[in-house]
Amino acid sequence: MQITTGEIASFLGGEVDGDPNVVLTGPSKIEEGKPGAITFLANPKYEEYLYSTKASAVLVDKTFKPQNRVRATLIRVPDVYGAISQLLNAFSGGEEIDRKVDHLAIVDSSAKIGKEVAIGGLSVVSGEVEIGDRSVIHPQVFIGKNVKIGKNARLYPGVRILHNCIIGDNCTIHSNTVIGADGFGFQPDETGKYEKVPQIGNVVIGNNVEIGSNTVIDRATMGSTVIQNGVKLDNLIQIAHNVIIGENTVMAAQCGVAGSAKIGKNCMIGGQVGISGHIKVADGTKIAGQSGVMGSIKEEGTSQFGSPAIPYSDFLKSYIGFKKLPEIMKKMAELEKQLKELKAKS
After folding, report:
1. Would 99 be classed as within a structural domain?
2. Per-residue pLDDT tens over the stretch 214-236
3. What does the alpha-carbon distance between residue 83 and residue 60 come to, in Å, rounded to a whole number?
4. Is 241 assigned a catalytic role?
5. Phi/psi-derived region of residue 284, left when phi > 0, alpha when psi is between -120 and 50, beta in every other case
6. How far lies 137's CA from each of 89, 131, 203, 236, 343, in Å?
7. What is the rounded distance in angstroms from the CA atom of residue 33 to the CA atom of residue 124?
C-alpha cells in the first residue's frame, strides 16, 4: 500500500506540517522508523526519538511544539491514539478468510449456520448451535450443544464454548479461551469430604466484547455469568460463576474475580487484581495493578490501590509512613529507653 502524507491527513482529519506529497508505505515504531514509514508521538517520554527518527512522517497532537529541528513531515491530529488506530486498520488490509465450511470440520446437521460463515478444519459444531452471518470460526474450535453465536463474531484456534452459552454480535475470542467451564462449586459433607455442586447455568456475553487468550469464564451455578456489551478482557483472566461485569469495563491480564461479584460499567482494572466474591464495585472505579479488593466499593468514579484496596491517595500517604517504619521504630525504642531512665531518676 502506498499513500501520501496529504492523503493520510485528509483521511485522519488532520493537517500536514511539511511536504504533503511524501509517499508512505507502512507504519513503524518511532525509534525504528525508516524512510517511507509513518509513526506517531503520543507519549512525551519518546519525544527524543522524534529528532532522530528516519521515518518520513510522524503523527503528533495538533498543539505539539517541537523543541528541536524535525526532519520528518508532521501530521497534526486532534487525537493521536485514535488516529493511529484508524491508520493501523487502514494498513492491515484485513485477514484473508475463505468463507466456507472446511471439509475437515464436523458440523451437526441440526446446527443453523448463517451467511458467509467460515468454519475451519478440525472444528466441532455440536447440535442445535446457531452461528450468525459473517462469523469466523478458526480451526480447532469446539462449540458445544445449544450454543448461540451472533453476527461477525471471531473465534480463534483452540477456543472452547461449552453447552448453552450465548455469544453476542461482533465479539472476538482469542486462542485457548474457555467459555462455560463449571464454576468452582463444592460443599463439604459431615465427614469433611467435598461433594460437587452441579453447575447448571450458562455464560452470556454481550455485543462488541473482546476476550484475550487463555482466559476462563465459568458458567453460573444457576442463572448466568454475564459479560455485558463492550467489555474488554486481557489474557489469563479468571471470571468465576455468577459474576456480572458491566458495560465497557476493561480488565488487564492475570486478574481473578471470585463468584457472584458484580463489577460496574466503565471500570478500569489493572493487571493481577484480585476481587473477592459477593461484593459490588461501583461504576467508573479504577483499580491499580496487584490490588486486592476485599469489600464493596460503593462510591462511583474512585481510584483504588493496595491490598486490601483503599482510595489511591490514602494508599500513597500510608506508603510514605510505611517506608519510614524502621526509622519510626528506632525512634520509639530510643524514647522508651529515655522514659525508663527518667522514671528511674524520679
Report:
1. no
2. 999 999 999 999 999 999 999 99
3. 10
4. yes
5. left
6. 21, 9, 19, 21, 81
7. 44
184 and 78 both lie in a single domain: no
Residue 102 has a CB neighbour count (10 Å cut-off) of 16
Euclidean distance between CA atoms 152 and 140, whole angstroms: 19
Q: How far apart are CA 72 and CA 135, in angstroms?
A: 41
Predicted pLDDT at 310: 87
**Is 326 in the same domain as 306?**
no
- Could you read off the pLDDT of 287-333 as tens digits, one per residue? 999 999 999 999 999 999 998 898 988 888 888 888 888 888 999 99
Domain carrying residue 270: 106-314
**Of 110, 104, 155, 111, residue with least CA distance to 131:** 111
Helix axes 5-12 and 80-92, enclosed angle (nearest 10): 120
Average pLDDT over residues 69-86: 95
Residue 9 CB contacts under 8 Å (≥ 6 apart), including other chains: 15, 16, 20, 75
Record the pTM: 0.85
**Amino acid, res. 71:** R
Residue 93 has pLDDT above 70, yes or no: no
Read off the amino acid at residue 70.
Answer: V
* Residue 101 domain-assigned (yes or no): no
C-alpha atoms less than 13 angstroms from C-alpha of 22 in its C-beta half-sphere: 23
Catalytic residue, chosen from 138, 163, 241, 278, is: 241
Q: Are residues 293 and 321 in the same domain?
A: no
Q: Rounded to whole angstroms, how far apart are CA atoms 295 and 304?
A: 12
